[in-house]
TrEMBL record:
Residues 165-316 form the Fe-containing alcohol dehydrogenase-like C-terminal domain. GO terms for molecular function: catechol 1,2-dioxygenase activity; ferric iron binding; maleylacetate reductase activity. This is Maleylacetate reductase. Keywords: Dioxygenase, Iron, Metal-binding, Oxidoreductase. Its cofactor is Fe(3+). The keyword Ion transport does not apply. It comes from the Bacteria. One of its GO terms (biological process) is catechol-containing compound metabolic process. Belongs to the intradiol ring-cleavage dioxygenase family. Residues 10-152 form the Alcohol dehydrogenase iron-type/glycerol dehydrogenase GldA domain.
Length: 330
């Protein structure tokens, strides 16, 4: 038996269709009396619903969240936090909105709640990645972890199919890297395999019918489980590469994960033979790397960095060249 350590966060999770209605109670439970709602422009409608539900608890709404949490956006929102004198933050959206909530919470000490609308998993991690003119830096601290997460399946029904696929594979990447993490343990192993199985079965149903509530529930459950993995064990090569490409070239987060994951799985099979077998078993394919590549292609997801707009010169080693071209892994 390999010794291990496992620390899970104190986040409270409420999950279910229509659970957004519980937002005022959850804000009060967290001690909030005047809330700033945070979103990107793409989720402003869902955030508007949250704002309406808050009624007298609403202090304001900032809809400027952006991918990779630029520090300039955080500064603008911080001014609003101060001028509106709010005492609680609620982010509604994907990882970009969650990231802004985390960036503000760590600067102000205010309690933050999160209503995720993608499968990014950031809502259950104590990790914050931020970008400035020098690239992307990441830090981890207990106070970055949101106080409560409201997973409302209904808010994910409108997530476009293409984003559902890439965000779903982003969640799968958290599970995959947890399985070969030096910190892997029985809890994360179990959650990771379950997440891979649930997500790989949910995505084809979502592609066929984006409004399939059961499939959306499975995908959101998988995102949560994979997010716990991301938040509790160290990630590896795949996340480092995505982080680098996102920070240096502004590559879209989830789509970059989608292209790279099969290539990273094929990179060093000798280092992870038993893990590749478990991943293949969870996905229901014969070979983990090629099988995942084929699943992604079948769901209509991106398979090359070229189609995501990366310049060819940026792909300057064997792994990145294969990802640039979208070569099917052996
Ligand atoms: P995102 O939040 O930028 O969302 C992608 C797009 O989808 C946006 O245009 C958004 O408006 C739209 N969208 C989101 N939900 C929608 C819905 N339900 N219906 C319609 N449109 C919707 O992207 P993301 O992939 O969720 O998150 C990426 C960001 O999160 C990156 O900055 C990444 O670094 C960060 N992240 C951080 C962690 C962490 O643990 N710190 C983990 C994962 C991702």
């Amino acid at each position: 038996m390999t010794p291990f350590e496992f620390t899970s966060g104190p986040s409270r999770v409420v999950f279910g269709p229509g659970i957004l209605d519980r937002l005022p109670d959850e804000v009060t439970r967290a001690g909030g009396t005047r809330v700033l709602v945070l979103s990107g422009s793409g989720t402003a409608e869902a955030a508007g619903r949250a704002a309406a539900l808050l009624g007298p608890l609403l202090g304001g709404h900032f809809a400027g969240a952006a991918m990779h949490t630029p520090v300039g956006v955080t500064s603008t929102a911080l001014e609003l936090v101060r001028s509106l004198d709010v005492d609680c933050l609620v982010s509604v959206g994907g990882g970009s909105a969650t990231g802004l909530g985390k960036a503000l919470a760590v600067r102000t000490g205010l309690p933050q709640l999160t209503v995720p609308t993608t499968y990014a998993g950031s809502e259950v991690t104590p990790v914050l990645g931020e970008t400035d003119q020098n690239g992307k830096t990441t830090r981890s601290a207990p106070e970055i972890l949101p106080r409560a997460v409201l997973y409302d399946v209904e808010l994910t029904l409108g997530l476009p199919v293409a984003l559902s696929v890439t965000s779903g594979v982003n969640a799968m990447a958290h599970a995959v890297e947890a399985l070969y993490s030096p910190d892997a343990n029985p809890a994360t192993d179990t959650m990771a395999v379950r997440a891979l199985t649930l997500m790989s079965r949910a995505l084809p149903r979502i592609v066929a019918d984006p409004g399939d509530v059961e499939a959306r529930s499975d995908a959101l459950t998988a995102a949560w489980l994979a997010g716990i993995c991301l938040g509790t064990v160290r990630m590896g090569l795949h996340h480092k590469l995505c982080h680098f490409l996102g920070g240096k070239y502004g590559m879209p987060h989830a789509a970059t994960h989608t292209v790279l994951l099969p290539q990273v799985l094929a990179f060093n099979p000798a280092a992870t033979p038993d893990v590749l077998g478990r991943i293949a078993g969870a996905l229901g394919v014969r070979d983990a790397a090629a099988g995942l590549h084929d699943l992604i292609a079948g769901w209509g997801g991106p398979t090359s960095l070229r189609e995501l707009g990366l310049a060819e010169e940026a792909a300057d080693d064997d792994l990145l060249r294969a990802a640039y071209r979208g070569t099917r892994p052996p």
